[in-house]
Amino acid sequence: MPVKPEVLKVTPTARSRLFQVEELKLRFSNGVERTYERLASRGNGAVMIVAVDAQEHVILIREYAGGIEDYTLTLPKGLIDPGETPHIAADRELKEEAGFGANRLHTLKKMTAAPNYMGHRITVIIARDLYPCKLEGDEPEPMEVIRWPLARLDELVLQDEFTEGRAIAALYMTRHFLAVEGQ
Amino acid sequence: MPVKPEVLKVTPTARSRLFQVEELKLRFSNGVERTYERLASRGNGAVMIVAVDAQEHVILIREYAGGIEDYTLTLPKGLIDPGETPHIAADRELKEEAGFGANRLHTLKKMTAAPNYMGHRITVIIARDLYPCKLEGDEPEPMEVIRWPLARLDELVLQDEFTEGRAIAALYMTRHFLAVEGQ
């Protein structure tokens, strides 16, 4: 592995309710200096849930995404609240967003979204042994819940409405995990 | 499809060199109002390149990522410059970051990174018929270039150093695309 650059200085440069922008001044091991901007990572991270039912259908939600000003088909996900483990957060988010609890949770992978300028990490958790259970969340409107057969994943990822890289990755990894487990 | 919420107001709330934060005031079709924060999308978008050589190895790069303050293994990617098509940008980035040009380019998918609070989109492009060609980019140090057999993708995604959701998604989609094409 290469020698990490030395962090010379971290300077906050802008702040809003949710976001904090920082300047990161670095000196690489070859002596070259660079100043990058990044979003500071706050909070306890987030979870993305691949809920798989007994028929190997996955639970998708259709929700409004403010960044793209459109509805999008994706996986349930959300921030880990203070004091929660990733598994507890996954179970809660699944109840709030999709109306299911899960008796069996498995951590699959910790992913990044855009590591060059964001520290955010999301833990992908497979949820099984599902049962109906609805918790009220802070959603402005009920999310549409869709069951999609994992066997038809290649069709899903071609849809224009299904675009979130982390969700595509999580589903492919889940399909592989279940195939190996079933061997 | 649900009826989109009405955008009541978009207000810039913070700005740095790279980032602009906006408040998005919405009224959902059920009358509920919400104010979200998001990063405004600027520029012409970005490309992520899956370069596949004649032996079906993909080209990975190891680069320093400021957001996570560590080296990470990922796919070549970069912003589309003004006047460039996505294919021209993909060919240029591949030359700058990995030292290869490509005679054959195919657009696979337009992905989002975090659509709830970012408008950013990245176009995944498969690059084939590779030839050695190095262009100087603005990288602070040369990137390490690694060839990885696509047949061993499931091993790669388990590595702690390979975390970027969009790159995992792009590689799985490429493997499927090449398998279908080869049938």
Automatic annotation (TrEMBL), chains A, B:
Q: Which Pfam families match?
A: NUDIX
Which residues belong to any copy of the Nudix hydrolase domain? 41-172
InterPro entries in the cross-refs: NUDIX_hydrolase-like_dom_sf, NUDIX_hydrolase_CS, NUDIX_hydrolase_dom
Q: Which UniProt keywords apply?
A: Hydrolase
Secretion signal span: none
Q: Which cofactor does it need?
A: Mg(2+)
Q: Name one GO biological process term.
A: ribose phosphate metabolic process
Q: Which GO terms describe its cellular component?
A: cytosol
Q: Which PANTHER family match?
A: ADP COMPOUNDS HYDROLASE NUDE, UDP/ADP-SUGAR PYROPHOSPHATASE
Q: What is this protein called?
A: ADP-ribose diphosphatase
Q: What species was this sequence derived from? A: Neptunomonas qingdaonensis
